[in-house]
What does this fold into?
Amino acid sequence: MILKALIVDDELMFRVGVKSCIDWNELGYHIVGEASDGKQAISMINELKPDVVFTDIKMPIMNGLELTKHIVANHPNITIVIFSGYNDFEYVRETLRLGAYDYLLKLSMKPNDLIDLLNRIREYLSKKTINNESTRIDKINSNVHKLKEYFLKELF
It folds into this structure.
């Protein structure tokens, strides 16, 4: 399964660096697009339907916190990762509280940090998919049982 990723950051050089510092395809990811602010990202999310959005916190027009709120409210299946140049506990706490999966500091981030994160996200989404399938099968089995009961009652 190839996961679709969207990178949102107002710094072009950071977007280029994140895209080129690792082999995304080898890790099972395809970067479907880039946006320079949250507003632009929203229209891209609606069109491209990414599995994962990597976003900066501080951006013009719409920041990463506002974007995170929008994604959680409108696209709850998208996994959100926050990139920031600020080592501020309040930002970390707020983004995680809103539903972000993780938070990485730009200045101390190394390629291996990103690789580890991408592998953890893949594992998380894989487990989430398995749990969703299991729940769906349980519902189907429950409905089949109810239909059998109904059918037998109607038959007699």
Summary: Residues 133-138 have pLDDT under 50 and may be disordered.
